[in-house]
Design brief:
The protein has 957 residues and is an alpha/beta fold. The protein contains 30 helices and 20 strands. The strands form three sheets. Strands 7, 8, 9, 10, 11, 12, 13, 14, 15, 16, 17, 18, 19 and 20 form a 14-stranded mixed sheet that branches. A four-stranded antiparallel sheet has the order 2-1-4-3, with no helix packed on it. The radius of gyration is 38 Å and the shape is elongated.
Length: 957
């Protein structure tokens, strides 16, 4: 070998949107996350084997020159050429265009196939490997940056397009109705001698004045809204949007104006629409309520089509939003990044939907009202022929229902297709939403037709047929009414202008002068008033500043110090509980580290036995290595004094069925008191410890971590206990610094501890900050071993995780509830856990043993024979937690495996009443994007309020 290259020395991309996959230089990473049954297991790093067709691709075996490659491959030694375009520092439209230009030029000059890999994204994918389980690998998704920058805009643009279409059609419909309503006026003007061009100019001038007035009002309203929101006005956008509506209004009126002025005066002055129909036409339906409605809609089919399109646009928008909310829990994933990029449905989306539906209802109502006024004489004739008021009412209602049905059907189809095109699938739930939207459109159409139907029923036959004009009945309004309306309009206009110029100040001044208070704030639950999200956020920020906290490193030690200091400052009784981590480091005689297990090179610590009385967080357990072979005779006890025994089991066996067997054999052979200082059972994978051990003596160091435990005695029921737990370490393998996972849970725990310390608690509360959660639930297991408490004194254990950025709280562990991803667990997994409880944790429960226990062998046998504990959280505890969340106003739902690191399972294994509160919705938790900037104080406050109120109610307050 001439040289080597180091994966760690490769430059990492600064901008995630500019990510370029390294190809063969990318280190092959794979982590075992679940076993074959889909049950989470302790993460195990998998590396490539010697099989070239294995599930994990091998890295390049050699790097060489083109000349040497031709020696092995011949003249066709090149499979691919990577071209890096210079001067690209970020994902911008200019840089994208530059890369595309270079790619196009390569194709034109060489004819080669070109893939643009800039702007790709590594995506975590679960791959089922038979006989191994579900392995997480990082695959490259091409074009992810384009999907990010364009996907969300495309989804928002689709929603906005539906609203703009409905609004634009409504404006056009209003323009046409305004001309139709003035048909008699136009005919009268032409009858008294006005020329056609004069009438056209007169109508167009009115439209111009109305358009300018509308543009001015639109500009003022837009500017006022911008000022109220504290934004900077963008005049091109405001001006363009303000001119769009009057421009559309004027263009829509051109055709009806031209048609109206071309009609002769006699036709324009004719009243009613009673006319004959030819046999075989749709208008020749039998004269019935439904037939009359269909006949009129067909007679004005252009107008009908316009209203149907307006309704369809609103229904399409509603179907798409409702499908996203129902099927995707309000999270529309619009990119190939899956969990990394999604469009959340926000309140303004619902406002867009309501606006579009309101436009449809107004369009139906206005059109039917104009139609009723046009057909006054027709309805009078029908009344004179014996039709009752209810018949005319039902006829107009039928028209509204038919328009709603046609628009609803068209809108439901379009909305379902839009959802399918953006979401990538069309599940049955989306089709059900579309069907319900169609029925809802029919109901809205009928509701919009109520007032026009009442006007039709009130037509007096005698007055209309004698020549009286029903539209002028009622006489002029009182002048005082006109002056009042005009004065109110002037005041509103002045307030609008002042708001556009000065923002919120005029509105606040009017409120003060008028004695009107601010809009009442929504009622806040007392529990939310008691806790502070800002204080909890300060704790998260401090933990993140320390860096990744994992495997007993300096950041984890500093985090423990910080948590200890905070709990002590609240006046609580605080204890530090050290425990050994399943992590060992080998060093040579000079103290130079040789190897750590576990590590990226492989290997894992499957069993550990130490004297718990000697565990000190300030001093790791160290000693000289004595390597034992399970196939060789055991050495004499005196040779093992003060040694740390290393047992390496290289023969494969099922550790789940016979956990920690080599360690049990060692302990059974020597018996208590054990001669050695500690024992470590390793699975070396591809490691060779014989090559690591030095002739001059090798030492091994067992790392120590600590749980921080604080106790607050109860006031009313001190003998009853409740435990709050939150892990403070984090899994840094994905580059995360542990803001939401797991800093946010600690932030909530510390804030609840502060409030209860000030106000008192009805029951005794134990606050536990756990270490070693990401390395096999070691902290939760160590805490139970240090505090075995009878279950009758324990009201419950509450685990806290990922509470800094969530859409809803997941409450679990509930077997038949969806998982964190919203998927229902497999039936075989549910049945297995229901029968065996959490028995799969037995391997972990035997992984750490106490050499100071004289009954250790009996303890091992008891644990092997123990049941699997509770299969799920007690239903009454889950129901109470959900009820508390509802009373506080926090959305919560039962979940199966709600937490990423399920420490709570260790307590279910011990048959203790346990639930977990884990936030659902932050798909970036645990990744490199899990930063403190994503943490929301209101989310921390609401989570802390639920926990605080649950303690109050469990204590009987």
């Amino acid at each position: 070998m001439v040289g080597s290259y180091d994966f760690a020395a490769l430059a990492a991309p600064q901008d995630p949107l500019s990510y370029v996959p390294l190809g063969i230089y990318e280190p092959p990473l794979a982590t075992l996350r679940y076993n074959d049954q889909g049950i989470p297991v302790e993460p195990v790093r998998l590396t490539p084997g010697l099989n070239p067709a294995g599930s994990i691709p091998r890295p390049p075996l050699a790097l060489t020159t083109l000349e040497a490659a031709e020696f092995f491959r011949g003249e066709a030694a090149i499979d691919a050429i990577r071209v890096r375009v210079g001067g690209i520092e970020g994902y911008t439209p200019e840089n994208v265009a530059k890369v595309e230009r270079v790619a196009r030029e390569i194709v034109e000059r060489t004819g080669l196939h070109v893939d643009i890999v800039a702007g790709s994204s590594p995506r975590a994918v679960l791959v089922q490997v038979p006989g191994v389980g579900y392995v997480e690998q990082r695959w490259t998704t091409l074009g992810a940056a384009a999907q990010i920058t364009g996907g969300i805009n495309a989804a928002n643009f689709t929603l906005l397009a539906c609203l703009l279409l409905a609004s634009g059609l409504y404006i056009g419909n209003a323009a046409q109705l305004s001309i139709l309503a003035r048909r008699e006026e136009i005919g009268l003007l032409k009858a008294v001698g006005w020329h056609t061009s004069h009438v056209r100019a007169y109508l167009l001038s009115e439209l111009l004045l109305l358009g300018l007035l509308g543009a001015a009002l639109a500009t003022l309203m837009a500017l006022a809204l911008v000022r109220l929101l504290g934004l900077e006005p963008l005049w091109p956008i405001i001006g363009g949007a303000a001119l769009l509506a009057p421009l559309l209004y004027g263009l829509s009126a051109l055709y009806p104006i031209q048609q109206a002025v071309r009609r002769p005066p006699t036709e324009a002055l004719r009243q009613g629409e009673v006319r004959g129909t030819q046999a075989g036409q749709l208008g020749a339906l039998p004269l019935s309520l439904f037939g009359l409605a269909v006949r009129h809609l067909w007679r004005r089919r252009t107008r009908t089509l316009l209203i149907v399109l307006i309704v369809a646009a609103g229904v399409a928008l509603s179907v798409m939003l409702a499908a996203v909310v129902v099927q995707l829990n309000g999270l529309l994933r619009v990119t190939l990044l899956g969990d990394y990029v999604a469009l959340s449905i926000r309140p303004y989306h619902y406002l867009m939907m309501l606006t579009a539906l309101a436009v449809g209802v107004l369009a139906i109502g206005e059109t039917l009202l104009v139609s009723v006024l046009e057909r006054t004489r027709e309805f009078a004739v029908l009344r004179a022929l014996g039709w009752q008021r209810v018949h005319l009412t039902r006829t107009v209602l039928w028209e509204g229902v038919l328009i709603g049905a046609l628009g609803g059907l068209l809108g439901a189809i379009v909305g379902a297709l839009l959802f399918w095109s953006i979401a990538g699938s069309l599940p049955p739930v989306a089709l059900g939403v579309a069907a319900l939207a169609s029925l809802g459109a029919m109901a809205l159409g009928g509701g919009a037709a109520l007032y026009p139907a009442q006007r039709a029923a009130r037509v007096p036959p005698a007055q209309v047929l004698s020549g009286a004009d029903e539209r002028r009945r009622g006489g002029p309004r009182h002048p005082a009414w006109r002056w009042g309306v005009g004065f109110a309009g002037l005041l509103l206009f002045a307030l609008l202008v002042a708001t556009a110029l000065w923002g919120n100040e005029p509105v606040n001044r009017v409120r003060e002068v008028a004695g009107i208070g601010a809009t009442p704030a929504p009622t806040v639950h007392p529990a939310q008033q008691a806790v502070s999200g800002e204080r909890a956020l300060a704790h998260v920020e401090r933990l993140v500043e320390l860096g990744p906290r994992t495997l007993g490193n300096e950041a984890q030690v500093a985090a423990a110090e910080y948590i200890h200091a905070q709990l002590t400052s609240y006046g609580l009784q605080v204890e530090r509980e050290p425990f050994p981590l399943r992590m060992v480091t080998f060093s040579d005689a000079a103290g130079v580290p040789l190897l750590s297990v576990p590590s990226e090179e492989g290997g894992s610590v499957r069993g550990l036995a130490v004297n718990f009385d000697e565990v000190d967080v300030t001093q790791p357990i160290t000693g000289t290595v004595m390597l034992l072979d399970t196939d060789a005779p055991w050495p004499a006890p005196e040779t093992l004094v003060d040694q740390i025994v290393i047992i390496v089991e290289e023969k494969p066996f099922n550790d789940d069925e016979d956990p920690n067997r080599p360690m049990r054999d060692l302990l059974a052979h020597y018996g208590y008191p054990f001669p050695f200082r500690a024992a470590v059972y390793l699975w070396p994978d591809e490691l060779s410890l014989e090559e690591v051990l030095q002739p001059g003596g090798t030492t091994v160091c067992i790392m120590i971590a600590e749980n921080i435990v604080a106790t607050l005695p109860g006031q009313e029921q001190p003998d009853q206990e409740l435990w709050l737990m939150a892990p403070y370490d984090n899994d840094a393998s994905r580059g995360g610094v542990g803001a939401d996972d797991n800093g946010s849970g600690v932030g909530v725990l510390l804030e609840v501890a502060r409030v209860l310390a000030e106000r008192g608690s009805p029951v005794t509360v134990r606050f536990v900050a756990l270490a070693g959660s990401t390395t096999g639930l070691q902290g939760s297991m160590a805490h139970f071993l240090a505090h075995e408490s009878p279950s009758e004194q324990l009201l419950g254990i509450v685990g806290l995780q990922r509470l800094g950025a969530w859409d809803e709280l997941g409450v679990g562990h509930v077997l038949e509830a969806p998982t964190r991803d919203g998927e229902l667990p497999p039936e075989q997994v549910v049945e297995m856990i229901r029968e065996d409880g959490q028995g799969f944790l037995r391997t972990l429960w035997l992984s750490v043993l106490d050499l100071s226990d004289p009954q250790l062998l009996s303890v091992i046998d008891e644990r092997l024979a123990s049941s699997g504990g509770l299969s799920e959280s007690p239903p009454q505890l889950v129901e109470q937690a959900l009820a508390v969340a509802e009373s506080v106003g926090v959305p919560a739902t039962p979940r199966h495996y709600p937490c990423a690191t399920p420490d709570y399972l260790m307590y279910l294994y011990q048959e203790l009443p346990t639930i977990a509160f884990c936030g659902i919705g932050n798909d970036l938790a645990g990744t490199e994007y899990d930063t403190v900037e994503r943490i929301q104080p209101i989310a921390l406050q609401r989570a802390a309020a639920v926990v605080y109120q649950l303690i109050e109610e469990l204590g009987g307050r």
